[in-house]
């Protein structure tokens, strides 16, 4: 059995399957992919989704 929520060290939270994610403004977003990546660094331009920005952050700013 594989987890349906996975925290990636220094990166996003992966959600497997359908979930409803509320962003910081309370707006709800429903996942539409088999695996969705939720930003944990707070720097993505596509929040609540990860856009890969965490990869260019200094280590101390990564989640
Ligand atoms: S975790 Fe990937 S952009 Fe924030």
UniProtKB/TrEMBL annotation:
Keyword field contains rRNA processing: no
Q: Which residues form the Iron-binding zinc finger CDGSH type domain?
A: 16-60
**InterPro entries annotated for this entry?**
FeS-contain_CDGSH-typ, MitoNEET_CISD
Q: Which Pfam families match?
A: zf-CDGSH
Metal-binding in keyword set: yes
Keywords attached to this entry: 2Fe-2S, Iron, Iron-sulfur, Metal-binding
Instruction: Please report the name of this protein according to its UniProt entry.
Output: CDGSH iron-sulfur domain-containing protein
């Amino acid at each position: 059995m594989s987890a349906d929520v996975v925290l990636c060290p220094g990166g996003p939270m992966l959600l497997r399957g359908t979930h409803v994610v509320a962003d910081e403004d309370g707006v709800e977003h429903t996942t539409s992919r088999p695996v969705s990546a939720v930003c944990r660094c707070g720097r993505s331009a596509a929040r609540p989704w990860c856009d890969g920005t965490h990869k260019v952050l200094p280590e101390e700013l990564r989640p």
